Amino acid sequence: MRASFRALLAALFSIGLLLAAGTGPAQADVVTPQDAKPLRFISYNVCGASCALSAETDAGRSAWVFDLVKEIDTWDSDLVMLQELCYGQWKLIRDALSPQWRVGDVSYDTVWGAALPSASGCGQWDPVDRRFGLAIFSKGEGSIVAGTRTVTFLPEVPTTPTEDRILLCAQAQLDGRVARACNTHIDFHDATTALQVPKVAELVEAARQGGEPAVLAGDFNQVPDHADMNSLYNHGTGSTGRFQEVDENDKEQFAGVDCPQTADRCRSGEATASPACSEHTNETSKIDYVFLSYEWFKTVQGDALSCPPGMSDHHLLRGAAAWEQ
Fold first, then answer.
1. Nearest to 39 by CA among 201, 203, 234, 217
2. pLDDT computed for residue 206 by the predictor
3. Please, what is the angle between helix 87-96 and helix 2-15, to 10°?
4. How far apart are CA 153 and CA 25, in angstroms?
5. Whole-angstrom Cα distance, residue 260 to residue 251?
6. Which of 86, 89, 113, 308 has its CA 20 to 30 A from that of 295?
């Protein structure tokens, strides 16, 4: 399957077949690859098990992977955090970004974490191995520090029927420095969300207190100004955290008494969930994030991209920043 996948992917690259992934931002605020700060991040809930492929064939899988890789390359991404990712899907992305495939081009190292041993929808990616979870991709061969991968299962409300939720972390080389990269997908039930977000903040904060720059990304299933997010943000009413978010200074998203146009930054940002992406989504809201430890990063920037058909039921969020020192 790998050989046929590579042949198909090569053909797609040669003829320029692209479904227009990431062709423009969802809002008017534009941060382009040409003017963005040098540290680049992507967080994307790819809906691997729930969103049907255009075709359950090698060609269909290759087309989807091609579009994602195109966006990773266009943004010149340093860290890529993917949620709702099937294991078979991860293997295809891993191979497409591997040194063996990208001869003469930048390759990526990666770690995977399973949240479920099997998800029926993952059969479209691999009929045998249907594991479902999260992944981190880090620019550069061998850029993830060996032996640093951790998977932490997050607390749940016992009466809430839900899949396991995890925090996947690893140390990664980020522009010559070692940073703690973490990725998560928080449960959408209110009671469980209120447990899991503070736990994630506590775990990543421990790395920050240890002197490591920290990058935390994921689908948090909560809006920025909700009290559940207080433990992450270092600004705004009720905030107790030490992190900034890449899209917190987009004034087009500022509104209300707690977020006036005169503010420098707010707990806000462009929507990453909307009816434009999913017919099952009734509201337009920001629920996907890239958080950066405040002491280490400055001049954050962010954009939520458009939703090309067949890619996901979320907007892709890309962010950028510069080192503080």
1. 217
2. 86
3. 60
4. 33
5. 9
6. 113
